[in-house]
Amino acid sequence: MGEAAGVTGAVETGVREDRAAHGGDGGGWDDGPLSRTARVLDGVRAYRLIVAMWIRSTMAYRASFAMTTFGNFVATALDFLTIVLMFSQIDSLGGYSLPEIAFLYGLSSTAFGIADLVVGSMDRLGRRVRDGTLDTLLVRPAPVLAQVAADRFALRRLGRITQGLLVLGYALLALDDVHWTVLKVLLVPVMMVSGGAIFCAVFVGGAAFQFVARDAAEVQSAFTYGGATLLQYPPGLFAQDLVRGVTFVFPLAFVNWLPALYVLGRPYPLDLPEWVAFLPPVVAAGCCALAGLAWRAGLRSYRSTGS
Amino acid sequence: MGSGRLYAAVAAGGFRRYATYRAATLAGVFTNTVFGVILAYTYIALWDERPHLGGYDQSQALTYVWLGQALLMTMCVMGAGFEEELIERIRTGDIAIDLYRPADLQLWWLAQDLGRAMFHLLGRGLIPVAFGAWAFDLTLPTSVLPWLSFLVAVVLGVVVSYGIRFLVSLAAFWLLDGAGIIQMAWLAGVFCSGMVLPLNVFPGVLGEIVRALPWAALIQAPADVLMGEADPVGTYAFQAGWAVALLAAGRAVQAVATRRVVVQGG
């Protein structure tokens, strides 16, 4: 850990110099002189530096890294194995074939995997609030959001993304009655990126909630892991009210359901119009904005444990 | 102090320790309930395709979902019991102090774990099952006897689960870092306990293997006893057999481990 601490010091110095170059006064995140763009760039730079530090620290133990990445891959692959086991007994689930469910699964798993890799460490925030170590981050001259998101960055989470991409690859090879158009082909990477952004917003919003909830951090898993599991199955399986909820209130349906149903040429739930398939980038932007506001409110309400 | 009273006190301490975090318990109940709802709908679709799959009708399959969510924490299927603490004590050398104590290491942690399981059964189990029974059509017995048989199967299941996790923890005497072995135990627990899919739905030889492994004692066995799908005596024999085997193995490993214990850091 001594080495890691040394690198942290280097990171902080780097950020400080950077801010000096920008003319920032280095006083917390609410400082006036920096423009919004400069602050975002500052945050991204801090995030990059901290992530690089954690990757270097992970790579000090290569065998351990290889094993935990493999473990992450296998653990997430069990999910899909369950679906394969189900299909050993049936030919279709709710009218969907295995490749079609694999398509939904691959997209959900990849999008969630991206978010888990980028900001997944944020579900540790509750612990930092509880033991008071968040205070350390507050006095550092880098945006707190970037620090918390990059905290203990776990490269092993590539295991989940790899698994999601493999299942997606299988689905794309096995789907034989999809009429591919340019639009549909383009929609696949768009879904992964905006789906990832929507899940990132869920993680950030969940972290904001942890400022208030503290011990109740596990509620977040219901929306992150629970959401990712829900999206692996076709919407037709679930109660209309549940589908309504994840479309209009908590818009997870835009991660993969609506655009994927367009690609598969399947009917939409809730009689939605066809163009909603192209909304994911807009929804993702909206979610990120809301999550940002929630984070700001959460951070403002933070009172240290005082001990 | 009689040793019986000592272990009762340790068990009560285990119960109280987990009962302290009320907000965390409520949050866990919420998460279990959400996962229960998601699983329940996928099972409805599965049993619509194949009624009587694995010998269950749809209502029994749904009952299985909610019992699984209720027993998840009780049986520590996904870990999060005493293992990390014991492994940390082995790694730091604090275990030497534990071995000096006038109490048996294995029984001490067993008592603590039974207390914990009792709390998780009440605190994390009751509400999800009640919610499941309200929202879905479950097959829960109305007489007392099946519930009592179920409780016996749960206690035996906890002892089997403890037996597995005690062995996992002792591996730290050789490995020092427990992360890898905990991950392996997690994988085996999630897959072989029937937490995601009832074990009687697993096809062919794979099904026969997982139904014979000790993890079958955790969720599948108590659920089948409650729903009247399995003969309680046979089930108890299966569970008790594994419990005795695992505890004996734990005792043997402990004997070897304590003979070679080298306290780190002097």
Secondary structure elements and pairings:
The complex is a heterodimer of chains A (about 300) and B (about 270).
Chain A: H1 2-22, H2 36-59, H3 62-87, H4 98-119, H5 125-131, H6 134-138, H7 144-150, H8 158-174, H9 182-213, H10 219-230, H11 240-249, H12 257-264, H13 280-300
Helix pairs in contact in A: 1-2, 2-7, 3-8, 4-8, 4-9, 4-10, 9-10, 9-12, 9-13
Chain B: H1 3-19, H2 22-49, H3 58-74, H4 83-92, H5 95-100, H6 105-135, H7 144-170, H8 172-175, H9 179-192, H10 204-212, H11 220-226, H12 232-259
Helix pairs in contact in B: 1-6, 2-3, 2-6, 3-6, 4-7, 6-7, 7-11, 7-12
Your description of this structure?
The complex is a heterodimer of chains A (307) and B (266). Chain A is mainly α and 307 residues long. Chain A has two domains: 1-60; 72-300, no CATH class. Chain A has 13 helices and no strands. Chain A has helices spanning 2-22, 36-59, 62-87, 98-119, 125-131, 134-138, 144-150, 158-174, 182-213, 219-230, 240-249, 257-264, 280-300. Mean pLDDT of chain A is 84; it is low at 1-29. Chain B has one domain. Chain B has twelve helices and no strands. In chain B, 47% of the residues are buried. The A-B interface holds A 64, 67-68, 71, 74-75, 78-79, 81-82, 85-86, 88-94, 213-219, 221-222, 226, 229-230, 233, 237-239, 242 and B 21-24, 26-28, 30-31, 34-35, 37-38, 41-42, 44-46, 48-50, 53, 177, 179-180, 183-184, 186-187, 190-191, 196-197, 201-203.
Q: H/E series of chain B, N to C?
A: HHHHHHHHHHHH
- Report the major sheet of chain B: none
The coarse silhouette of chain B is globular
First and last CA, distance of chain B: 32 Å
Radius of gyration of chain A using CA atoms only: 21 Å
| Count of all domains of chain B | 1
The biggest chain-chain interface is: A-B, 36 and 36 residues
Number of strands of chain A: 0
Distance between the termini of chain A: 24 Å
Approximate helicity band of chain B? over 70%
What percentage of residues of chain A falls in helices of 4 or more residues?
55-70%
What is the strand content of chain A? under 5%
Structural class of chain A: mainly alpha
Poorly predicted tracts of residues of chain B: none
Order of helices and strands of chain A: HHHHHHHHHHHHH
The total count of helices of chain B amounts to 12
Q: Give the averaged pLDDT of chain A, no decimals.
A: 84
Strand content of chain B: under 5%
- Biggest sheet character of chain A: none
Mean pLDDT of chain B: 89
**Quaternary status:** heterodimer
